[in-house]
Amino acid sequence: MVNRQAVAKLRLKQTSKRALGRALNSVMKSIPVNANQSGFTIIELMVVVAIAAVLMVLAVPSFEDSSAKSAVRAGVNNLQSDLAFARSTAITRSRPVAICASDTSAGRNCGTGDWNEGWLVFLDPNSNGALDAGEELVRIGSALGARVSISLDNPVLFNGRGMNSAVSEFVFCRAGSTEAMYARSVLVNLGGLVRASRDSDGDGIHNGGEGGGNLSCGG
């Protein structure tokens, strides 16, 4: 179902910016220009300062939105790449390979589901999804930072043919936000194929899962 509230919010923001732009342009044109005047009057300076203040108010949220979306996209790309690498390694070496959330407080060990701290890719011959003594660690994923949150608790396990033990979907959101406009996902199907979500219906919200429904960020 289309998240009408999120779409309406996006359209209102775009409309407000266009209206403000037209208003500011009108104000600037209304300021009289005196060819013999060597500087600005106090009124003109006040108008310029007011315009600058309004532009700053608009620019800061826009920059924060852009920065948050960029952080989410980077997280999606990094995890998607490492999941594909894990599957490729499993096929190439004909051995089970797992990828789990990293527990930074306990060194290079699998954690309890906080993928924001990074992840580990390792050969997992006993297929238990945990990095046991003697198992080969083949890649370490970097922490994502405070701007992004990921929802998924379980490790992903590829068998020697590159197939996944269960459908896994990582949902990325802007940390502290429930707005669906930030949601992105990485899906690993039973065949082991890895794909990122996309906005397939053009409503401003990405579609995820095998059913293609709108993603959400809780709330």
TrEMBL record:
<dbReference type="Pfam" id="PF12019">
    <property type="entry name" value="GspH"/>
</dbReference>
<protein>
    <recommendedName>
        <fullName>Type II secretion system protein H</fullName>
    </recommendedName>
</protein>
<keyword id="KW-0488">Methylation</keyword>
<feature type="transmembrane region" description="Helical">
    <location>
        <begin position="38"/>
        <end position="60"/>
    </location>
</feature>
<dbReference type="Pfam" id="PF07963">
    <property type="entry name" value="N_methyl"/>
</dbReference>
<dbReference type="InterPro" id="IPR045584">
    <property type="entry name" value="Pilin-like"/>
</dbReference>
<comment type="similarity">
    <text>Belongs to the GSP H family.</text>
</comment>
<feature type="domain" description="General secretion pathway GspH">
    <location>
        <begin position="76"/>
        <end position="192"/>
    </location>
</feature>
<dbReference type="InterPro" id="IPR012902">
    <property type="entry name" value="N_methyl_site"/>
</dbReference>
<keyword id="KW-1003">Cell membrane</keyword>
<keyword id="KW-1133">Transmembrane helix</keyword>
<dbReference type="GO" id="GO:0015627">
    <property type="term" value="C:type II protein secretion system complex"/>
</dbReference>
<keyword id="KW-0472">Membrane</keyword>
<keyword id="KW-0812">Transmembrane</keyword>
<keyword id="KW-0997">Cell inner membrane</keyword>
<dbReference type="GO" id="GO:0015628">
    <property type="term" value="P:protein secretion by the type II secretion system"/>
</dbReference>
<dbReference type="InterPro" id="IPR022346">
    <property type="entry name" value="T2SS_GspH"/>
</dbReference>
<dbReference type="GO" id="GO:0005886">
    <property type="term" value="C:plasma membrane"/>
</dbReference>
